[in-house]
Amino acid sequence: MAGGSVSECKEHLFKVLVIGELGVGKTSLIKRYVHQLFSQHYRATIGVDFALKVINWDSKTLVRLQLWDIAGQERFGNMTRVYYKEAVGAFVVFDVTRASTFEAVTKWKHDLDSKVKLANGNPIPSVLLANKCDQKKETSTSTSLMDNFCRETGFLDWFDTSAKDNVNVDEAARFLVENILANDKGLPYEETNGDRIKLHQEAVPAESKSGCC
């Protein structure tokens, strides 16, 4: 049985969007998750940046998570349809210290659902991240209100996160990947010697890539 395990290994490439208002910490969350790094001084993302996280999911499954860090002002442009193309999951991020960023979540979710869907026509799985929880004051996020909000808007779930203190970053990502894998029955996969990444990189013109992590 051990002898055939290598040839049976499935390698998936999943395109995951990270969206939300300017300054909510999207880039910081990605840097923490992919590189275990945190800085207070990331420059604002222009257009879209990329990062790749390789996950040995189990003994027979390797997941390559292609994270698309989309600039906060992009919701008002026409490029999001191009950026969203072929995504199979998304994080929508808001800053718990700025109410306006939470108020914008519904607009981001609507934009997402209107521009990309799974092959079966359903919305792509999305998770809401209440970021910068390390800066919370005494008025903490109400669990029941957030649960209700997620049900009403179609989020799978929500997580309090902190890129600075590394709170729930890995947990939120694992939860989303679990749901992507559950939806993946109809998606193509390939053996470990493939290079399916080319199919996904065609979605965005080269000039719009501001840099790969």
TrEMBL record:
Record's protein name: Ras-related protein Rab
PANTHER family: RAB FAMILY, RAS-RELATED PROTEIN RAB-32 ISOFORM X1
Topological category with respect to the lipid bilayer: Lipid-anchor
GO cellular component, one term: late endosome
Annotated organism of origin: Muraenolepis orangiensis (Patagonian moray cod)
Pfam families, per the entry: Ras
Signal peptide: none
GO biological process: endosome to lysosome transport; phagosome-lysosome fusion
